[in-house]
């Protein structure tokens, strides 16, 4: 129903089926839209307000995103219901808990960005509409109003390249497969993981149209990839275009860069935007990142390039802004510094870890920018966070930077460490600097509906250990589980650029796991608690694995084969326990990833190709040259059931067998890439169906590896 009160348009009691917020509430719990009154009252700032009218809570906001934030705030802090990646639907009582008084929150941070190009590949490459729908719900409930939406961009490129006369066989060799589209769109590689079938492009177009329709209906402002000059590597030779050869990226040939001085630049850019608009419409933001991770810029006029990219975007949509990621040397001041203020939005991509806003005034004092948290690299599994650094860093930026306009979640992979994303999403709606210990207890209360002393103590320990990574640390995400490392006598990390250090006392994690296991029966019906219990115990087992690895490293240095054999057996036993533990929840099973990939195909050939994409991405990543020479192997490693048993364990078993069978000689020479490649060529064999009782198995593991040595 629409009405006007004091000149302000209100949408009152949004309960009709066509209203997007009605659908959101019904997906949380059928019938919930009839239990909550929703009102939209425009304002100059984003706000939400909670109150009570009779037996029904009232949630009011200036737009649908703000109302959704208010709904989430009510669910968490009044109803004791936490919606997260592992649970987006609940059963609510017939009469909802009342709001006491009036609760109002507003924010001066109007831009809240969501997703990294990498997220679309590392987590979302094989999603169906049901999964996308849950994610959009999660994002809007957390106030994220600028989601990056790259699905279907491959179809835009296919259509544009066809228009300029590029043959289909060459297009097939240019556009990457679904597991690797992020790095293709960031100008790092071409063709890897492809080719893609026409049915694939049809599905991508249809999916993106549904994604954008839902985002727009909820008042979100999607960000689409714009045109930044990328062209196939052979475009110069094939079309006679003036292009720059940007070199290689970790063993892959990069696409070429169309020089802005080429007279064809405006025409090609216009065709790109025309094809994109025909399929997906216009948006207020376009993401473009030329030279995102390096690339040869010899002979490239960066100022002219920035001008050409900006003008092409503005010709397409005069009201649009260019979104660019601050990563390494990008964006260069010479490319965007001269552009009008308001036309560029800079993402300080990992401000929690390596902020650029406070050391690059040429960029961050010239353009609007967002304080972003990257946190996760490669979709790796592991507890990790920098709570004091994030809360303090955001407060410092808010209080000292005149161009800060909001926050962003720019993780490479999702469905991990929900506590950190919950924290950052709340910061724009809070005043002052958040007290981490107070906040962590309120988070646990919301997540579980209630907490006792054991749970409160467990989260205090986690906050000061794994989630208390020092501000000056620059390591890439979690302290990696050495179960996933390529074997050696002295393993320290898994991925090439991790820079992992032991910054916390593992005994805090062991104690947190034991405390939670001790009261697990009380919370057994809460999926959030069970997920966290398994995840914390998983971290404890991984940390025990680091201890065992240290033991066989010392034994190797001393030449003690007996101690080496004992430590290696302990290490393998821990891997077996970990695999069994992770099998209890679908969230930690390789089978879920494989099933999603195969479900994308219509034919057996398509299914096998998508599964190959899924397997390669999380293991060798690329060719031998890229995996070994480029260092990409195991970058996207996952501590998942099935992967531990069939991929990581055989590597370690072979290493230990070879090492012990010829003790005293040099380290064995094993072609790990060939072992790994053989696994990527297999099909099937994994299920998403959980096995075993998680609480029972957690307690068995704690009794075996933690309790005896914790007192």
Summarize it.
By secondary structure, the protein is an alpha/beta fold. The chain is built from 26 helices and 19 strands.
Explained architecture:
There is one protein chain. The protein is an alpha/beta fold. The protein is built from 26 helices and 19 strands. The strands form five sheets. It has an eight-stranded parallel beta sheet with strand order 8-7-19-18-17-16-15-9, with helices on one face. Helix 17 packs antiparallel against helix 18, helix 19 (527-558) packs parallel to helix 26 and helix 21 (590-599) runs antiparallel to helix 22. The longest helix has 32 residues, at 527-558. The radius of gyration is 26 Å and the shape is globular. The model is unreliable at 1-9 (pLDDT under 50).
Keywords:
711 residues; eight-stranded parallel β-sheet; 11% strand
* Total helical segments: 26
Strand order of the largest sheet: 8-7-19-18-17-16-15-9
Radius of gyration: 26 Å
Contiguous runs where pLDDT drops below 50 for at least 5 residues: 1-9
The overall pLDDT, averaged over residues, is: 95
Summarize the topology.
Layout lengths: L1 E4 L2 E4 L8 H9 L8 E4 L5 E8 L2 E6 L2 H14 L25 E5 L3 E4 L2 H6 L6 H13 L4 E2 L5 H11 L4 H5 L8 H5 L12 H20 L5 E3 L4 E2 L3 H5 L3 E2 L3 E2 L2 E2 L2 E3 L6 H16 L4 E3 L14 H15 L4 E6 L6 H4 L7 E5 L12 H4 L3 E6 L13 H14 L3 E6 L8 H9 L9 H13 L4 H12 L41 H13 L8 H32 L2 H22 L7 H10 L4 H14 L6 H6 L13 H19 L10 H9 L13 H12 L6
Parallel strand pairs: 3-5, 7-8, 7-19, 9-15, 15-16, 16-17, 17-18, 18-19
Antiparallel strand pairs: 1-2, 4-5, 4-6, 10-14, 11-14, 12-13
